[in-house]
Design a protein that fits this description.
This protein is of the alpha/beta class. The chain contains 13 helices and 15 strands. The strands form four sheets. A seven-stranded mixed beta sheet has the order 2-8-7-6-5-3-4, with helices on both faces. It has a four-stranded antiparallel beta sheet with strand order 9-10-15-12. A hairpin with a 4-residue loop joins β13 and β14 (330-332). It is globular and about 65 Å long. It starts with 6 loop residues before the first strand and ends with a helix.
Length: 377
């Protein structure tokens, strides 16, 4: 029987594991599996691997090794940054990942924190002057949390400018860089952030491991208690194999950013040109220039995003949708709503995100199959 050749174009959701990372992980899963916190010699290799991995990750983002703290992933890192900063006012944006938004709502509902949401423009970029205004309305010291790149549109946010405004008002600044790390250069010094969240599986590392960068001098509380691991900031036996895989995957991706960007932009152009050539009425959502390479939010006039997703799935093509159906009604995603995407397009939103394994043939086929689902105008 001939094998089915699946096209995976949902790399913004998760990515295939880097082969070098997988190879390095096996050693710590099967042979050097000792708890790195133990004092005997058998634990030394695991402990050394953690230290090396911390240094590799720090180098990738221009940080110090002692500013990197390992977590179970981006959601935990975001939760800790938002919930444990000690700031009773939190300013975030209307297009954040739920790991940030739901953490903000929890702090408001359970502890009475002030929560302010910054608006975005039609290009999916946070409106910069709105931050200074929000800070003037805070009744206590604030934390500002704005993502580096949006997970639905790929639009890159003006983090450096926002962080400067936050610091001028005495606020801390956190950025959720989960979608951006390994795909565009990330320099915590140039960005001027106090905290930054990362998740391995978004840059070809393993699932279930991530990190939180905390600038030296910034004090935050533990989110998980029970042990003294990670300098007392995160209890729990470290996932040595996962951390090793994460550090190697991030290093490899950062080394190849320019080459991958060039290739991904070619795939984008093939897809867009293919759709235009079929006479399909659609729009590319978000800033066309300040965007992660290979991640496209497309809205098709008069179409249904869920229907497109399922029809492509029947053709062994994996994409995602920018809208969610709850069974009772079509519910347009929060991001698409805040960008004021016209209603006749909003319901037909899908997200296509190319990665290392995609080819020009993949992009061309996706365009053809979408054309078979959506009638020309």
């Amino acid at each position: 029987m001939q094998a089915v050749l699946m096209i995976y174009a949902d790399n913004a959701a998760t990515t295939p594991l880097d082969t070098e990372a997988l190879s390095a992980m096996r050693e710590f899963l099967a042979e050097y599996y000792a708890n790195p916190s133990q004092p005997y010699s058998y634990s030394r290799k695991a402990k050394h691997a953690l230290n090396e991995s911390r240094a590799r990750i720090a180098q990738c983002i221009n940080a110090r090794p002692d500013e990197i703290f390992f977590t179970s992933g981006g959601s935990e890192s975001d939760n800790q940054a938002v919930k444990c900063s000690g700031r009773r006012a939190i300013i975030t944006s209307a297009i954040e990942h739920k790991a940030v938004l739901e953490s903000c709502y929890a702090m408001r509902n359970y502890y009475g924190h002030e929560i302010h949401e910054l608006p975005v423009d039609e290009a999916c970029r946070v409106i910069i002057p709105a931050l200074a205004e929000a800070l003037t309305h805070c009744h206590s010291p604030a934390l500002v949390s704005v993502m580096l790149a949006n997970n639905e549109t790929g639009v890159i946010q003006p983090i450096h400018e926002l962080a400067q405004i936050a610091h001028s008002h005495g606020a801390l600044f956190h950025t959720d860089a989960v979608q951006a790390l390994g795909h565009v250069p990330v320099d915590v010094q140039a960005l001027g952030v106090d905290m930054l969240s990362g998740s391995a599986h978004k840059f070809n590392g393993p699932r279930g491991v991530g990190f939180l960068y905390v600038r030296r001098g910034v004090e935050i509380r533990p989110l998980i208690h029970g042990g003294s691991q990670e300098c007392g900031l995160r209890a729990g036996t470290e996932n040595t194999a996962g951390v090793v895989g994460m550090s190697i995957a991030l290093t490899n991706n950062c080394r190849e950013i320019s080459r991958h960007e060039e290739r991904l932009l070619i795939l984008e152009r093939i897809l867009i040109d293919g759709l235009k050539g079929c006479g399909i009425d659609f729009r590319l959502n978000g800033d066309a220039a300040e965007r992660l390479p290979g991640l496209l939010s497309l809205s098709f006039r008069g179409a249904n995003g869920e229907r497109i997703l399922h029809r492509l799935d029947l053709k062994d093509i994996c994409i995602s949708t920018g809208s969610a159906c709850d069974g009772m009604k079509n519910q347009i995603s929060r991001v698409i709503t805040r960008m004021n995407v016209p209603h006749e397009y909003a319901g037909g939103t899908i997200r296509i995100s190319f990665g290392k394994c995609n080819t020009p043939d993949d992009a061309a086929k996706i365009a053809r199959e979408i054309a078979n689902v959506i009638p020309t105008q």
